[in-house]
Amino acid sequence: MSRIALITGATSGIGRATAEAFADLEYRLILCGRRQDRLDELKTELSSKTDVTTLNFDVREFIDVDDAVRSLPEEWKAIDILVNNAGNAHGMSAIQDGDPNDWDQMIDGNVQGLLYVSKAVIPGMVDRKRGHVVNLSSIAGKETYANGAVYCASKAAVEALSTGMRLDLTQHGIKVTNVAPGAVKTEFSVVRFKGDTERADKIYQGFTPLSAEDIADAIVYAVTAPANVTIADLTILASAQAAAMTIHRK
Ligand code: 8X3
Questions:
Q1: Residue 117, domain extent
Q2: What's the total number of domains in the chain?
Q3: Do residues 204 and 184 lie in contact, with contact meaning Cβ atoms separated by under 8 Å?
Q4: Position 186 pLDDT exceeds 90
Q5: Ligand 1, closest atom to CA 182?
Q6: What is the DSSP letter of 249?
Q7: Which of 139, 143, 147, 158 to mutate to test ligand 1, by most ligand atoms within 8 A of the CB atom?
């Protein structure tokens, strides 16, 4: 039987590319996001390849997350793969200038949200004694850079959660993969810079950044590894990138 994958933040960027790659594998897809129109559009696009259903919730509201996952019909409940992709950067400034609302969005979305979806999905995996959790961290979870303290802290938390989940879940037959991308050209920087596309575009100038599809390829590698192999941690940088903020630009 085809595997069932639940992807958060599925309507854009890495989430969308992962949904498309999983559709090519004919995985049955539970696409999650906040924008029903975009979920519907993606469902229509991918339905020619595989079974697709959608769940509309904000990962930051545990009750909504839990209700949505519980509402899945019986034939969708046995989730094999959870891709904790939803998350974003909000603002980029020195700590003394940071906006607490931005901090809330990053901590609530990237950390609490990941936890809430995990809480709604992982107990079923434990009962079934199988599953694979893929957490989207970042190079920012491995190194902290100036003006990014809170975003980096939120991704450092994801790193710790991936390790902690692996410690707790391995004995239950569940794999955990931590994926840490570097500079990926998606809506990420536009969101980080609050719609300032000029500032966002500058991030990717003078080199070839990663694409969302590059990261989806890595996720496919992890989830298709043989049963005896856990891809624990993948750090993926653009070829011109030596570290988070060390990029060789032409
Ligand atoms: C996104 C990568 O380096 O902009 O998580 O923080 S970076």
A1: 4-247
A2: 1
A3: no
A4: yes
A5: 2
A6: -
A7: 139
* Residue 221 annotated to the active site: no
* 50 in Cβ contact with 2 (< 8 Å): yes
CATH number of the domain that 148 lies in?
3.40.50.720
pLDDT tens, residue by residue, 191-236: 999 999 999 999 999 999 999 999 999 999 999 999 999 999 999 9
Integer-rounded Cα Rg, in Å, for the chain is: 17
The 3-class SS string of 101-117 reads HHHHHHHHHHHHHHHHH
| Residue bearing the CA closest to ligand 1, atom 2 | 182
Ligand 1 geometric centre to CA of 189 (Å): 9
Identify the residue whose C-alpha is closest to ligand 1 atom 5. Answer: 138
In the chain, the amino acid numbered 170 is T
- Strand ranges of the sheet holding 52-56, from the earlier edge strand across to the other edge: 52-56, 28-33, 4-7, 81-84, 131-136, 174-181, 233-236
CA of 2 to the centre of ligand 1 (A): 33
DSSP three-state, residue 66: helix
Q: Determine the Cα–Cα distance for residues 143 and 155; give it in Å rounded to an integer.
A: 10
CA of 71 to the centre of ligand 1 (A): 34
Which position among 27, 116, 145, 151 bears the catalytic label?
Answer: 151
Indicate the pLDDT class of residue 19, thresholds 50, 70 and 90: very high
**What ipTM was estimated for this complex?**
0.90
d(CA 193, CA 81): 32
* Per-residue model confidence as pLDDT tens digits over 142-178: 999 999 999 999 999 999 999 999 999 999 999 999 9
